[in-house]
Amino acid sequence: MKKGFLIDMDGVIYGNDTLIPGADKFIAELQKKKIPFLFMTNNSQRTPLDTVNKVAKMGIKIKEENVYTSAMATAFFLSFMQPNGSAYVLGEGGLITSLAQNGYNLVNHNPDFVVVGEGRNFTLEMVNNAVDMILSGSKFIATNLDPSPKKKGWSNLGIKAIVKMIEEATGKKAFSVGKPSPVMMRAARKYLGLEASETIIIGDTMDTDILGGVQLGYTTILTLSGVSTKENLIDYAFKPDLIINSVADIELEKVLALK
Predict the structure, then answer these.
(1) What three-state secondary structure class fits 150?
(2) Fewer CB within 10 Å of terminal CB in the chain, N or C?
(3) How far is Cα 115 from Cα 126, in angstroms, rounded to an integer?
C-alpha cells in the first residue's frame, strides 16, 4: 500500500523561522524515496510560492505542488458550494489569489460570502462593512480559527480574535475551513491522491492536526518540537498513533508500516 504525508510546518519543520534540526533530512528522504507529501498550513496569507521561498532559505527545496494552504481549501470549498460566486475578503496574498484562480469575484457590495483570513492591512471600517454584509445575508467564512499567540510584542492577531468580534456583532457563527475541519483535511488528502488509510499526518498541536487526523482515520504523529508537551496529553480523550521529539526521530520504514 502506498503512503503519503501531510506535514504541518510551524513547530514541525521550523520554529520562529529557524529550521528544526533534522527536518531537512527528513524531507530529503521523502523526496529520494518518491513518497508523496504536502506541507499543510492554516496560514492563508502566504501563497505556495511564498512557502517554497521560505523553506528554501532553510535548505529545503520543494515545489509549489508540495504546499496546501487554508486559502486553497477555502477557495475549493466556496467554488463547490457556489461556483463563480462573489466574496468580500478580509485577508491578503494567498487568499485573494486562490479565490481568483477558482473563478471568484472579489466585490465590495452584496457578496455571496464574507471571508476572513490572515492580514495586517484591513481596517475597522472593513470589519464594519463585513458586519453589515453578514446582517444583510452574506454567508460568513473563516479560513481557520487559529488563536492569537498571546505573546507580548506580537504584531498580528490570530484569525480567531477577528472572527469572534464579527460573530458577536452579527450573532452569526463563521464556518471554518482550515484545520482541524474535515473540509481541509480531506481536500489535502485528495490533492495527494491518497485514501484515508494511506495518509499520515505530522503535527505539533493536538487541537488541529492530530484531532483532524483522528477524526478522519489518518495515521497521526505528534511531534513535541512545537506547542504540545507530554504533560498536556492527559487533557485529551484521543491520542496520536506515535509521539516523537522531532521529525529527526522518524524511522521511515517503521512509520510507513503503522496500521
Answers:
(1) coil
(2) N
(3) 12
In 171-243, which residue ranges form alpha helices assigned H by DSSP? 182-192, 211-216
CA atoms of 55 and 24, how far apart (whole Å): 9
Comparing 110 with 119, the larger pLDDT belongs to 110
Measured CA to CA, the distance from residue 145 to residue 210 in angstroms comes to 15
C-alpha of 218 from chain center: 16
Averaged pLDDT of the chain: 94
Residue type present at position 213 = G
Contact predicate 3/198, CB 8 Å? yes
Instruction: Flag whether pLDDT at 153 surpasses 70.
Output: no
User: For the chain, what percentages of helix, strand and coil (3-state, to nearest 5) are there?
Assistant: 40, 20, 40
Catalytic residue numbers read: 8, 10
Q: β-strand 113-116 against 86-90: which pairing, if any?
A: parallel
Amino acid occupying residue 59: G
Q: Are 79 and 87 in contact (CB under 8 A)?
A: no
User: What 3-state class would DSSP assign to 50?
Assistant: helix
Query: Torsion-angle region of residue 244: left (phi > 0), alpha (psi -120 to 50) or beta?
Result: beta
